[in-house]
Amino acid sequence: MTAKTATPMSRQKKAGVTISIARVHNQMRKSAVADQISSKAPLYVAAAIQKMLETILEQATDNVRNGDRTKKTGELKTKRVVNGDIIAAVRSNPDLARLFSGFAFSSHAAAHKPTNFILSAAEKEKRKQAKEARDLEKGVVAKKGGKASRALGN
User: Fold this and answer.
1) Which residues contact 46 (CB under 8 A, 6 or more apart)?
2) Measured between alpha carbons, how far is 114 from 99 in angstroms, rounded to an integer?
3) What is the rounded CA–CA span in Å between residue 48 and residue 103?
4) SS3 category, 146
5) 58-111 per-position pLDDT tens digit
6) Computed over its alpha carbons, how large is the radius of gyration of the chain?
7) Average pLDDT of the residues of the chain
């Protein structure tokens, strides 16, 4: 009677995630996040990354499906998800916009400020008034050609 040897199974396959847990673990060790890293930490990070990517790609795919259509046949003009769709998906979701607030996407479109999603209307107005007061203190009259002209103290 011969004993069957169990085939080795990767942590990635056991967990049922697409992102490589071994690579996440290596990156965590290289970045020196902590002196010691538990065996489950890379699993949770990989699962969180996968969930975030699924959310972004799902929203980007919906943006493409709801995109422009041809006038003649009514078919979609494009069936591909491009970087603009991914950027739009990140910017349209308040949580993802906050998460990627310090990240610079290479796009010609104007970026939305994350404060638009997280501040209340009263707080936005308060900040606007504080900025105007600071500008008045500095003596800024108006911006012309990218340079501020200052009021003369005569």
Assistant:
1) 12, 15, 17, 19, 20, 21, 24
2) 9
3) 18
4) coil
5) 998 888 888 776 667 777 777 788 888 888 888 888 888 888 888 877 656 666
6) 25
7) 79
Phi, psi values for residue 142, rounded to 5°:
-155, 155
Rounded to a whole number, what is the distance in angstroms from the first to the last CA of the chain?
105
E-assigned strands of the chain?
A: 140-144, 147-150
Please list, residue by residue across 24-37, b when 16 or more beta carbons sit within 10 angstroms of its beta carbon and e when fewer do: bbeeeeeeeeeeee
The tens digit of pLDDT for each residue in 111-151 reads 666 666 677 888 888 988 999 999 888 876 555 444 555 54
Q: State which fold the 11-118 domain adopts.
A: Histone, subunit A (1.10.20)
- The CA-based angle 57-58-62, given to 5 degrees, is 115
